Amino acid sequence: MKNFSQIYVNGSSLSCGGSLHFKSTAWRFYTTEQEVKSWKNSKDVSYGNVLGKMLGINVVNEAKEGGGLDRLIRKTYDFISTSTLEELSETLFVFDIPLQPARFEVYSRKHNDWFTVAVSYKGGENPNEYSPIEVSRNTTKWLSNLSFSRGWGDSNIILSLDELKEHDDLLNKIVDNYHDYEIQANRLLRELTMFYCFLDKMKINYFRDNNETIFAGSINFAKRNGTNELIKKLKLFETSNENVIGCPTIWNLSEKKKWRICDETPIEDAHLGYFGNKKYAEYLYEKLK
Question: Which burial class, exposed, middle or buried, applies to 45 when counting CB atoms under 10 A from its CB (0-12, 13-18, 19+)?
Fold first, then answer.
């Protein structure tokens, strides 16, 4: 097994202990019904942090609930840019790749911070149709075509009601006028392809599902022309970096292995369960060997 000095984790809720936050429904079930020792930070029980404990090394976990591909690339690029080549050679990168075209991020000049945004698309034949969701703050409620967060669950940076309404209105106007599901799907493919090129050029140590690479290029696959050539190009990634560690896509693997919250509890939730996070960490540990 190669010796690493740290692990870098990025992705969405899947990699930061999604639905396992303190006092959540799942947290209550595990800590009462199954007598699991309580925890305060969901990242502490996420698979990346568990893997770090198994290896006895530091973990930098920048995954975020609702995070999309653009956020993952931005944060990872910043991390790589501020690390030395020696540090990078001793770092294991772990990603869950968010391939949801409905997710993006915007920068707020007012707050000097980033907002993660998820458009509530209905799906189906017309991908740009909305399925409005209810936004509420205390007794005030309204319908919106999106959800957004500056820092989910972080009471230190929560927006006031007036600010919440202000940004909700602005973001809905942006989405209505400038956001198209299929255009965003194509953007994801471009950005993921360039991201893989960057990682491989830097000889980054990371897990990648080569079939997932093809899946990334197959968003709206049936509508694409020349799919054989597309697959040939994507397969070039399979041999371009000897530091890539082959590993099945986490969503598919967790469903197959029954590592999800809904597999471990009566709660209908497809995130990794408390035990599922441990089992996935053990799985990655064996992959490293």
Answer: buried
